[in-house]
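Notebook entry, structure prediction.
Reason for the run: the old model in the group folder had no record of what sequence produced it. Starting over properly, with the input documented here first.
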Amino acid sequence: MTTWVENPRNGRDRGPRGLARAWVEVLIRPRRFFRNGVAPGDQAPGLVFGVLVALCFVGGMLAFSSETVLGTELVPLVADSRAVTSLLVLLVVALFVAPATLHLTAALQTVLLVLAVRDRAGVSETVQTIAYATAPCVFAGVPIPELRVVCALYGAGLLTIGISEIHRTSLFRAALVSAIPSAFVFGFAFRGLGPLVALAEELLHSLTLI
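New structure, fully documented this time:
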């Protein structure tokens, strides 16, 4: 499930430099990135990328909203220390929550692709596509509703483009089959749905007053 092949298609840099380059390229040139940067059977770099994005998100939440996150019923303090609790939260996210969420979403996306796309790529490419589509969410931990909405919509757009490129289908069909996974990842996991609904309600309320 996490094979890191020695020579992936078209080659990719490894290590911190490769991760940083992948982050920039998927944000500014997504079609070219998904076409050249996703290789069959090469899940590990994408998995590492997705885990790091999740750590940035959770780290941002802990840094900016620790008072409302730590010491609650959901995340009780360990050893009466916010530092120790934060470290344990990050470890759990890195080792369990992020990989499990990524593979669960990939399984759901694969089922939807089976129903809608006849000539499709493998599960490995789907895992990588979802992982790299989370790139904008490194900023989603900042408690600014508008920023979270932008991150969620940007990520959903990247997933649509990635599914279209990797599985050789139209953008319209890719948008349809990736709608539910996008809602789960960007709306629920990265907390984009709540701010989006709130902003939409505020906009509708403003329009009714005009």
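Summary: The chain has one domain: 15-209.
The old model has been moved to the deprecated folder.
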